[in-house]
Amino acid sequence: MLRTILTATALATILATSALADVIPALHDALPQTYKDNGIKAAVFNDWAPDEFLDSDGQLKGWSVDIAKEMETRLGVPFTFEGTSFDAIIPGLMSRRFDAGFASFGTTPERLQAIDFVAQRKIGTAFAYPMDSDLDIRAPGDVCGLTVAVLNGSWDLDLLEKLNAADCKDDPVVLQMHGTQAQAELAVRSRRAQATVTGSVKLAYMAKQTGDLKVSDLVLAPVNSCIGVRKDDPLGQVMADTIQSMIDDGTYREIMAKWGLDDAGMLTAGLLITEEHPDL
């Protein structure tokens, strides 16, 4: 289920107010009282450039982090940012250690049983392998039989398991699990794995920075890249409406352009995703 709840009148009020102040009262007022009183505890995946990552100075950076900080301003409540591993975020949301997870989540039926998602942009899954490799991954069957380094608990692991059950039944992909995406990429560079797999935007950014890996032409399973929130928490809709306000006043595009990501995968509306959906 996809929900956008702002009425035209409410949106006009928000945009008019936005021109006068950083905090948007209509969005602040829509927050549950607990967030007005205590702020929002935001988990941030610390190893997923250009979405969310720690820079050389130990500061959280990325386009998703920029969206989070813009939300902090517009909602008028403090965000407490905590960099953490990917697999700690959903349990942290469930235990209330965190209120929102900025981790470029892909939506899966299993995840949607426990949490809701606020869309940020659209991505797909691609493969990366050494520049001097003979690999040329253009179709799902080209992956069969390869040793692929993958982040444990990721959306991409789920995709590889489905690939093994379908295209690669007779010659399955060997799944090499890693605790971080950086470790998965190191496994490819050290030739312990033939390829790694993850979000197409993340891989393209990494390959451009390092120059030693190339990215496949094959991009699997386009999906919304999302913020995670607890199931049925009103915070999810408020965040979706906040992104809508960024889209309408141009801030969303400015953030994506800053990271060179405004040429594809852009949202045209803020979306709260609460159940599995076929359309993007």
Description:
- 36% of the residues lie in helices and 26% in strands.
- The protein is α/β, with parallel strands linked by helices.
- The protein has two domains: 2-122 and 223-273, D-Maltodextrin-Binding Protein, domain 2 (3-Layer(aba) Sandwich), CATH 3.40.190.10; 124-221, D-Maltodextrin-Binding Protein, domain 2 (3-Layer(aba) Sandwich), CATH 3.40.190.
- Strands 1, 2, 6, 7, 8, 9, 10, 11, 12, 13 and 14 form an eleven-stranded mixed β-sheet that branches.
- The radius of gyration is 19 Å and the shape is globular.
- The chain starts with a strand and ends in a 7-residue tail after the last strand.
Short description:
The chain is α/β, with parallel strands linked by helices.
For the structure shown, list the relevant keywords.
2 domains, 36% helix, 11 helices, eleven-stranded mixed beta sheet, three-stranded antiparallel beta sheet, disordered N terminus, globular, D-Maltodextrin-Binding Protein, domain 2, 280 residues
Helix and strand element order: EHHHEEEEHEHEHEEHEHEHEEHHE
Query: Spans with pLDDT under 50 lasting ≥5 residues?
Result: 1-21
**Strand residue content:** 25-35%
What's the mean pLDDT score?
A: 90
Largest sheet: 11 strands, mixed
Helix content class: 25-40%
Q: What form results from the Cα inertia axes?
A: globular
The span between the termini is: 11 Å
Number of domains: 2
Structural class based on helices, strands and sheet pairing: alpha/beta
CATH topology (level 3) name of the largest domain: D-Maltodextrin-Binding Protein, domain 2
Oligomerization state: single chain
**Helical stretch tally:** 11
CATH superfamily of the largest domain: Periplasmic binding protein-like II
Report Rg.
19 Å
Tell me how many strands there are: 14
Q: What is the name of the CATH class of the largest domain?
A: Alpha Beta
CATH-defined architecture of the largest domain: 3-Layer(aba) Sandwich
